[in-house]
Amino acid sequence: GAPLPGASAYVLDDVLNPVGTQVAGELYIGGDSVALGYIGQPALTAERFVPDPFAENGARAYRSGDRMRRNHQGLLEFIGRADDQVKVRGYRVEPAEVARVLLNLPSVAQASVLALPVDEDESRLQLVAYCVAAAGASLTVDNLREQLAARLPDYMVPAQIMLLVSLPLTANGKLD
């Protein structure tokens, strides 16, 4: 979408520089409608309400925590939450974004991607994809890896791909 009249929407990198078209960044909202902060929560206010890097006179921008990108038409596309990011091989990755790419493949009915420890050293993470084939489709790990490599940077291609009959669900129907 696009910002409302009187509001500004910036998609910025970690040092508050605008990112290019189709490049993920965090959404910052500026304009006269931005609040002064959270009542009684100065630490959260300082974290979320920052000086607007593109306005004058001490205006503020709201750091939304949403990962976005601008498409080729200049419209904003939601990717996921910034707090769901993990670092894999030195790069910030949103596992849900990798899952969305899998779900856009006609041969995949269900997918989930997790960041799991590489080994006992839990500080190093790798992506692991869990996939369920669409009805009548034939899935192979090699084919999925090839399709992902054509659509994602190398560091976003899961290190492991597990083929399942179904994804495990809780009694409430949520992914377990």
Automatic annotation (TrEMBL):
Q: Which Pfam families match?
A: AMP-binding_C
What biological-process GO terms show up in the record? amino acid activation for nonribosomal peptide biosynthetic process; enterobactin biosynthetic process
The segment(s) forming the AMP-binding enzyme C-terminal domain are 97-174
- What's any one GO cellular component for it? cytosol
Instruction: List the InterPro entries.
Output: AMP-bd_C, AMP-bd_C_sf, ANL_N_sf
Provide a Gene Ontology MF annotation, just one: phosphopantetheine binding
PANTHER family for the chain: FATTY ACID SYNTHASE, NONRIBOSOMAL PEPTIDE SYNTHETASE
The protein's name in its UniProt record: Pyoverdine sidechain non-ribosomal peptide synthetase PvdI
Identify the species of origin: Pseudomonas amygdali pv. mori
